[in-house]
Structures are given as C-alpha cells and as structure tokens.
UniProtKB/TrEMBL annotation:
Domain of life: Bacteria
Gene Ontology terms describing biological process: cell adhesion involved in single-species biofilm formation; negative regulation of bacterial-type flagellum-dependent cell motility
Protein name as it appears in the record: diguanylate cyclase
PROSITE patterns: GGDEF
Enzyme Commission number: 2.7.7.65
Organism (species): Halopseudomonas yangmingensis
Coiled coil regions in record: none
Swiss-Prot/TrEMBL cofactor(s): Mg(2+)
Subcellular localization, as worded in the UniProt entry: Cell inner membrane
Enzyme class: transferase
Tagged with keyword Transmembrane: yes
Any one GO molecular function term: diguanylate cyclase activity
CC terms in the record's Gene Ontology section: plasma membrane
InterPro entries, per database record: Diguanylate_Cyclase (IPR050469), GGDEF_dom (IPR000160), Nucleotide_cyclase (IPR029787), Rev_trsase/Diguanyl_cyclase (IPR043128)
Length: 384
C-alpha cells in the first residue's frame, strides 16, 4: 500500500512544474500555509479574472434574449428577459465596483458573487421553463439552459484555487444542479439527469486539476520573483511591499509591529581575507540560521549586502527582544577561521516608539543597529 501511495504521489508531482519545491506541495491543498505575497498575488489575480468573467457574462447574457424572442411564447420570453436584465445589471455591478485589494476574503466574496448570480438565474429559469410545454425548436433552445452549470463548472478552471477551495465551489454548483432537479421532480427525466450529474462531476475533477496546476505555476513564479537568489530569503523589493502591507495592518488593527535590522559583524573582512565565494557561503549559512529561528509569521528580508531586516507582525517589543536574544545566543554559524559568526541588531516597535511612518520605524531600527556596533557588536540595542 505504501509503494502504491508513493507511486501515485510521484505521478502527481510529474504533472506539476519542476520548479515547485517539496515543501510547497502542501500549498496546493489549502490556502492556510501560503506566504503573504503569494496570497496577495493570488487574490489580485482572482478578482481580475472575476471581473473579466463578469464582463463576458454582462455582454452575452442580454444578447441571448434575441434567440428567446424568436422561439418562446411572449409571456415566457418576458419573464426570461426580466431575469436576464437583472443578471446583466448584477454582472455590471461586479465589474464596476469590485476592485483588487490583495485580500483573500475579498477574492472569495467576488468569486462567490460571480457564481451565485448565474446559479440563481439557472434555478429560476429552470423553474420557469418547467411550467411550459415546449416543442421542436423551443424545446431545443430550452435544453440549452441546462448547459449553464457545465459552463460555470468549466469556468472555475481559470482561477488559481487550492484543492479545498475548488471542492467547495464545485460542491455548491453540484448542489445547485441537484436542487434544480428537485424543483422539477415530477417531470424529471432521471436517466438524462443522472448522466448530466455524472458529467458535471467529471468536469469538476478536470477543473480541480486545472486550478491546482495554475496555482502551482503561480507559486513557482512568485517564489522566483520575491526571493533573493543567493540566500533564498525575501528580496528587498518584495520586502518593501510586505513591509507596507504589515504597516497598514498594524495601523488598521492598532497592533504591534517590530522591525529588527541584523548586520553581520566584520563581514567585509571575510570577503577581503577569503574571497567573495566564501563570503557568499557565510551569507547563506547566516540566512539559514536566521530562518530556522523564526516563527511562521515572521519575515526575513535581505536588505542589502550583509544586512537583513526581520519583520515581526503582532509582536510587542518585549517579546521581540526575547526572541532576538535567543537568536543571538544560538549563533549564526561560524566564520571561515572557526570563530563564531555574530551580528549586531537594532530593534524598533511601532507602538513603543510611537512611530508615525514606516520610514521612521526603519530609521529607528537602523540607528540602533549602528549603536549596537559602536557598543562592541554581537548584541541587541533597543534604545536610541
């Protein structure tokens, strides 16, 4: 059984981008472990695709009324046209008023609204059509309404969703299809309904693969874009974006935000005495030690040269000081000559330092880091 499980898992990994790391495979299952920048990029992409979907539906939905007018009785056409008008207005509202914010709750709401609108239309139109005896051309056009769930299920494939998110959305569409069948229970063609439901489930499976494949490529692209190629920690460009978001979060929730500048002591001497390749190895070693000491919510950024910025959201100054003291005590590896590799750290916290801007908070942490160097290095400074 274990061999079969490994074989299946290996085949699944072969379908994913080669750049995807083993630790990132669980990101395809649930959004819980996603890093903040991936969450932001994914949320923005989802909302933009929701708006594209809404635009297409807003244009195509009322156009179908022309076909309805030709084949359906006028009372039925009028009811369907009224439904289509309301659906068109709803899609236009989504297009005009939903803008990307980078937050996943907003993205979830947008995709839920997008699929709720045609789902409600499908149930209502299915009920209306069931009240009329349609024949020949009108029956053929009326049967076309039954394809809407398939269009929606296939439409999920354009979104980079995790497996859990896809299953939730697909389950809602399957339940809507089942509910529509329940409303026409007395006239339901069971073989046809069962076949359609089975086909809808197959499309849901294919869509799940498409969604997770999209997400896998997005994960690989975001990691390559936001990581420092030498150390593997966040690059300065992505770090500045993260810092702006964390500052806004701290202000919005009045929560603490701690920043620590970490500068490796006498690092230039390593480059001068042993060469830049050895210096690069020391940098990677220090980054690995720093990364292993961080909490899941902390973010380590290579700010420049041998300097790192540690962002600690929702962390008061006292807790940040204790964590950094443990980090210093644990060490950052060894220098080429076998001596300990140490660092000078400057710590600042938004509430404690009453900083009125992220630039001010950065300046405080940077200034304190230099004070730690002046005081003898290999220490933490929390005061100006």
């Amino acid at each position: 059984m274990g061999t079969l499980h490994r074989l299946v898992w290996q085949k699944i990994k072969e379908l994913l981008p080669n750049e995807l790391q083993s630790s990132e495979l669980r990101w395809l299952l649930s959004p819980g472990p996603h890093m903040s920048l991936l969450t932001q990029r994914r949320a923005t992409l989802i909302v933009n695709r929701v708006r594209l979907f809404a635009f297409l539906f807003a244009v195509l939905t009322p156009l179908w009324s022309v076909i309805d007018l030709v084949v359906f009785p006028f009372p039925l056409w009028l009811s369907l046209a009224g439904l289509r008008l309301m659906v068109c207005i709803a899609f236009i509202c989504v297009l005009l008023f939903y803008k990307p914010s980078g937050d996943m709750p907003d993205a979830y709401r947008s995709i839920a609204i997008l699929f709720a609108i045609p789902t409600v239309f499908y149930i209502c139109s299915h009920t209306l059509l069931g009240n009329y005896q349609l024949a020949e051309m009108s029956a053929a056009v009326g049967a076309g309404y039954a394809f809407l769930p398939f269009v929606l299920m296939a439409g999920l494939a354009i979104f980079p969703l995790t497996l859990v998110e896809n299953l939730v959305m697909a389950s809602v569409l399957l339940l809507a299809h089942a509910f529509a069948g329940y409303l026409s229970w007395s006239t339901l063609n069971w073989p046809s309904f069962a076949g359609a439901f089975w086909l809808l489930m197959l499309i849901a499976g294919v869509t799940a693969l498409a969604c997770t494949s999209q997400l896998a490529f997005l994960i690989a692209l975001v990691r390559q874009a936001v990581r420092d190629p030498l150390t593997g920690v966040l690059s300065r460009g992505s770090g500045e974006e993260i810092l702006a978001r964390q500052w806004a979060h701290s202000l919005r929730h009045d929560s603490p935000l701690a920043l620590a500048f970490i500068d490796l002591d006498h690092f230039k001497q390593i480059n001068d005495d042993y060469g830049h390749e050895t210096g690069d190895q020391a940098l990677r070693q220090a980054a690995a030690h720093l990364g292993s000491a961080l909490r899941a919510s902390d973010m380590l950024i290579r700010w420049g040269g041998e300097e790192f910025l540690l962002v600690m959201p929702d962390t008061p100054a006292g807790a940040a000081q204790q964590a950094l003291a443990r980090l210093l005590a644990g060490g950052l590896g060894t220098r080429p000559d076998g001596a300990p590799l140490t660092a000078s750290i400057g710590l600042a916290e938004r509430q404690r330092d009453t900083a009125d801007s992220v630039e001010r908070l950065l300046a405080e942490a940077d200034h304190r880091m230099y004070r730690a160097k002046q005081a003898g290095r290999n220490q933490l400074c929390l005061t100006t």
